[in-house]
Structures are given as C-alpha cells and as structure tokens.
Write a structure and sequence with these properties.
The structure holds 2 protein chains of 2 kinds. Helices cover 70% and strands 7% of the residues of chain A. Chain A is an alpha+beta fold. Chain A folds into 2 domains: 107 residues, no CATH class; 139 residues, 2-Layer Sandwich (Zincin-like). Chain B is an alpha+beta fold. Helices cover 64% and strands 15% of the residues of chain B. A 3-stranded antiparallel sheet of chain B has the order 1-3-2. In chain B, helix 3 packs across helix 4. Chain B is elongated. The relative contact order of chain B is 0.11. The N terminus of chain B is likely disordered. Classes of the chains: A alpha+beta, B alpha+beta. The interface between A and B is medium-sized, with 22 and 23 residues.
Chain lengths: 254, 122
Amino acid sequence: MGLLFDLEVFFYNPSNFYVTLASVMASLLFFLIMKFNKKASNSHKLMLAYMHVFALVFPVLYFVYSTGCRMLFSSCHRFQAIMYITALALLSALIAAMLVSPLVIYQSFKKKSKQLQGSYLSDFVEQNAVSYGLKEVKLYLLKTAKPLAMSFSHFRKSIFISVGMIDLLGRKEIEAVLLHELSHLKDNTPSLKISSFFLRILSPLSKFASFGREIDEEERNADKFAVGVQGTRRHIFSARKKTDEFFRNYNDLK
Amino acid sequence: MKKLKANSQYESILSPLERDVLCVIWPNKTMKVREIYSILGPKRKVALSSIAVILDRLHEKGVVDRKVETGRGGIRYLYFPKQNEAQFEVSVIEKAVDSLIDKFGPTAVSYFNDRFSKRRGG
C-alpha cells in the first residue's frame, strides 16, 4: 500500500515521469542496438549490455532517492541529485559487472576446489600457458562428479576441471579440454559467459538476447584451437560427446 | 549375473542400474568408476557415463561415499559403500516402517503388534 502510494506521488511529478521514461527508452535503445547491430564486436556488445542494465537500474535508484533517501542529497538541487544518482548507478553497475559478479562465481568454485600442483595435468597447463604467452595459469580440481571445466581471467588466470571430467575422459581428451580452456584465457573470452549469466538475472529482456550465438562461436573457436594443437578433432569431439552423454543420462536415469 | 538378479527386493527404492552398481561395490568395498564399468559395461551394455551418473546419484542418496585419490596413476574418485548389504537392508526396512507409522499412526503400530504376536504365537 505504501509503495503504491509512493509510486503515485513519484509519477504525479511530471519531471520524475519524464526522467523514468527517458531512462527506460534509453535502456530499450541500448538493448536493440546490442541485439540487431551485427557488426558490433563482442566487447561493444558487452558495453551495450551493461549500459542497458544501468539505464534499467537508474529509475529504481531515482525512485528510492525521491521517496526515502532524500537526506543523502538534502543540500543539493534536483539536477545535482540526478547527477549524483547517475554516477552512483554507473559506479554500482561497473562494480557489479567487473568485480563483484566474477568474484562471487570465482569464489564459489574455489571453495569446492583444491589447487593442483606438481601433477601431470598442472605441468601440461603450465607448459602450454607459457608457449601461448600466458604468464601464470593456476589449475584447480573441482570436487564434483559432474564433468565440468571452466576458466576465469579475472584476478588470476585459472582453469577449473572436475574430478568427474577426469574420471570420464582419457588422457588425450582431458588435454583437449585443457587446451580449449587455455584458448579462452588466451583470447580473454570467459567474461562473455559471466556477463551473459548476470544479464539473465538483471534484465527482463535477456530472453531475447543472451549472447548465445556469440558464446557458441567462442566455443567453436576454442575447439578449433585444441584441434589445431593436437592435429586431430577426435579427442575434443569425443570429450564433448561423453560430457553431453553424461548430462543426458543425468536427466534420463531417474 | 546370478547375484544381480537376486536383489529385486530393492526395486521400490533403487533403479535397476543402481541395484547392479551396489551389488558390484558391496563385496569389493572400494572401487573406481572404470572398474565398476569394466564389470557392468559388457553385461548391461551401459556407457561409462551412465555408471558415473548412477554413482553420483547413490552418493546424493547417501548410500555410497567417495574420496579423491591423487596418485601416480592420475586423479579419480574412489567409491565405497556407507553400509554393508545387511546394514543397508535394515535401513530400508526402518525407513519403510517409519513412513507407515508417519502415515497411519496408531493403526500401523497396532497392526504391527498383531502381526508380530501372531508370528510369535505360531
């Protein structure tokens, strides 16, 4: 009841209404450019995605300011307050996208993992990382029976591979998976997957543009890299087949 | 396969493949996924991934436990049963009886009383 009343009061003021409308329109515009501009690079699309989220978040912050948090900006004029809120929304979007979200995901994986050192697999990663110009790549063993592998380029470059993946695959197939992940680190592509994940949470429009095509393309490129290094597509293809089979069975075998 | 077929009493709580995996793991105590697959794979014509899924499910159900083995031969999960076959049977009976008592309360208790006194009587 209180919220509805606050909303009514908020929109009764024409300037509040126009600021909100402009922000939502801008958000929609960023989204449409992101979806339909086929020439935009992945980094441009990412930037547009964050601007879309920022423009969506802005009216919420503006509403919060207008209803209950006036004290924060009590000495400012309305225009100054809008400037402050813009900066605040930009800063929070930036911190969420670049720092908090990757850190949360990274830490949740790290909690379930232990670092692999002095093993055949860590030596393999180390040697290949050096030859592809990557300074230091840490390899973590993820304690789950599900066949999973992923890489993080935020903070420290790291690869996570699960015990389930190692249980399921042969040596050459595991090497193919690690080369695939090294390719992501070399091309700095894991950020696209993380951003796609957070876009799904933050934007109601994410169903219509989730970077699916771009991610598929990056996966294909990473596969190509592994094929190029190993000189055969056999290992990466059979690794993919086995992991797909696992998850299919996981849903079917009940 | 004689042993595998004899374990149909778990039908209501375990899938056929779960039963087969348990029958392999009980006498052997600690096994790798590939070792179980080498026994069951040819007989049941199942993929390695199916055995891995079943072991993960049994682990989720608390029937088996696992530990990571990091050795010269590589890294793998070692699976072992949490209970032997007899203990497992007792826990299945306990769960079934508990669930009947939860559902039917005093009626179930008095039924069990009658049933067991009849048995004792003759």
